[in-house]
Write a structure and sequence with these properties.
The chain is α+β, with helices and mostly antiparallel strands and about 475 residues long. It is about 30% helix and about 15% strand. Strands 3, 4, 7, 8, 9, 10, 11 and 12 form an eight-stranded mixed sheet that branches. A four-stranded antiparallel sheet has the order 1-2-5-6, with no helix packed on it. Helix 6 runs antiparallel to helix 7. The N terminus is likely disordered.
């Protein structure tokens, strides 16, 4: 017979939930003995129980009750929905139409939210044969003009005879004095030429080139002043040279903070900016004889080794991935409102710019900050030649004059709360930086911005009109802050 003192204890089931089962001492239902009868005992146990001496009490019986596991709720998937076009209205749908908008038909969605403007780009690829070096090109679009077919060898490198003739012609020219007084000119030229350390050889050159010159006058040499003569030479070159006649002159406004929140900023005018519009320079470059060598269609350059292995080669601006990307973008550009049916070829003018400080003349201390421009459509082997005229002078950034600098610092000292020299140096650095940005704001005028968006119609040297889009590719510059 099973011991009636046995208790039932429930172990935690699935999910960690358990409830205590009352024992025989505390429950009011049927006794535990009736519950224990439901469990069969082996016959050997029942037979030996009557004769065997009483042993230790049996351990308490543990019954594990498993509770039903709740099934997860069914998952409801939301069907994907097309993204509305950018030019749709931003109005919200009415609440009454929510149910109707929840499941639209496919043809309705395509009709109401489909693309309204499709751009189909066709690629007429062309692969050239490899040359003797194993180089060949892959054009995404068949080029309308191949400039490399007409490049003579003399345009790639000068022969020794050409260099000798150029030097000989320059030496045959007569003496040109930079100053009205030949004596002053001879002394100034000796000062800036030759070695910086005046050795015995330099003194001999002074005697032979200056004192022995038939135009040297001893009376004029007695009243020679180097600084005064250098300033006079600078003024003479500025008035007689026709170079700056091609430029427009203007003043550049810069805004200078007062250093005091209670005092507003002030605008100062920096005079002496000489510049030319960017659009006129691009038109002049396409009218130059070098435009016959411009590349309008980009390509990828490859090298094929003798074993047949091909490798990409980067050599010029017009065979780079950036040029190819920009060329594809301008081909998809919209036509201007005044010429909506334009069918001209759209090409890229790859602008490359440089700027750095330089002296205006060989004499004196006058200097400006020039900005040069060249077009990357021309091969670097031609563009880098010193006498081909591939570089254009865009602008000459002026320095802050001493008079403006004095007025600016006096105003800043009266207005600012900081009177330290460091603050004055910082405000001058700010002015030079603002001057650089103000100059570029003037260069990027409305005409250039219109050309950047819609292009310029230019008749090229092959007689074909093309719509040229200017794009900036490189700019090597240094801020004139110090």
């Amino acid at each position: 017979m099973m011991d009636t003192n046995m208790s039932l204890v429930e172990e935690p089931g699935f999910g960690g939930c358990s409830e205590p089962i009352p024992t025989e001492a505390s429950q009011s239902g049927p006794p535990l003995s009736d519950l224990a009868r439901d469990y069969e005992q082996p016959p050997s146990v029942a037979t030996t129980t009557a004769t065997a001496p009483p042993g230790p009490p049996l351990p308490s019986l543990r019954i594990r009750i498993r509770r039903p596991v709740p099934r997860p709720a069914e998952v409801c998937d939301d069907l994907p929905e097309l993204i509305p076009p950018l030019d749709d209205s931003d109005s919200e749908p009415d609440s009454d139409d929510d149910e109707a908008a929840a499941g639209p038909q496919l043809d309705t969605v395509q009709q109401s939210r489909g693309p309204r403007r499709l751009i189909l780009t066709l690629y007429d690829r062309l692969t050239t044969i490899a040359n003797s070096f194993g180089l060949f090109r892959q054009y995404l679009h068949r080029p309308t003009f191949d400039p490399d077919r007409f490049v003579p060898q003399d345009d790639l490198a000068k022969s020794l005879a050409q260099h000798f003739d150029a030097d000989h012609d320059s030496q045959d020219s007569g003496p040109a004095y930079l100053h009205d007084n030949p004596t002053f000119s001879l002394l100034s030229e000796w000062q800036i030429t030759g070695s910086n350390e005046k050795s015995n050889k330099e003194m001999d050159r002074l005697v032979t080139d200056v004192f022995a010159d038939p135009n040297f006058n001893l009376e004029d040499a007695r009243r020679f002043k180097a600084q005064r003569v250098a300033s006079e030479i600078d003024k003479n070159e500025a008035t007689t040279s026709s170079f700056f006649n091609k430029f427009s002159e203007s003043s550049v406004p810069i805004e200078v903070p007062s250093g005091n929140p209670d005092i507003p900023s002030r605008t100062f005018q920096i005079p002496g900016l000489h510049f030319r519009p960017l659009t006129s320079l691009i038109k002049a470059a396409f009218a130059h004889p070098l435009a016959a060598q411009f590349h309008f269609s980009p390509f990828k350059l490859f090298h094929r080794a003798p074993d047949g292995k091909e490798q990409r080669v980067f050599c010029e601006i017009y065979d780079s991935d950036v040029f190819i990307q920009e060329s594809n973008e301008v081909k998809k550009a919209r036509n201007p409102p005044d010429d909506p049916d334009c069918r001209r070829e759209k090409v890229v003018a790859a602008m490359m710019l440089w700027s750095d400080s330089t002296h205006l003349a060989d004499f004196g201390t006058a200097k400006l900050w020039p900005i040069y421009m060249a077009l990357g459509n021309l091969s670097k082997y031609v563009r880098a030649l010193p006498d081909v005229g591939a570089f254009q002078h865009v602008a000459y950034i002026p320095s802050i004059p001493d008079s403006v600098k004095t007025e600016l610092l006096d105003w800043y000292k009266r207005s600012s709360k900081s009177k330290s020299k460091t603050a004055q140096q910082d405000i001058m650095t700010h002015c030079r930086r603002e001057l650089m940005h103000a100059v570029w704001r003037m260069l990027l005028d409305d005409e250039f911005m219109h050309a950047y968006q819609y292009g310029i119609v230019i008749k090229c040297l092959d007689g074909v009109e093309r719509r040229v889009f200017p794009r900036f590719f490189t700019y090597a510059a240094d801020y004139p802050e110090k």
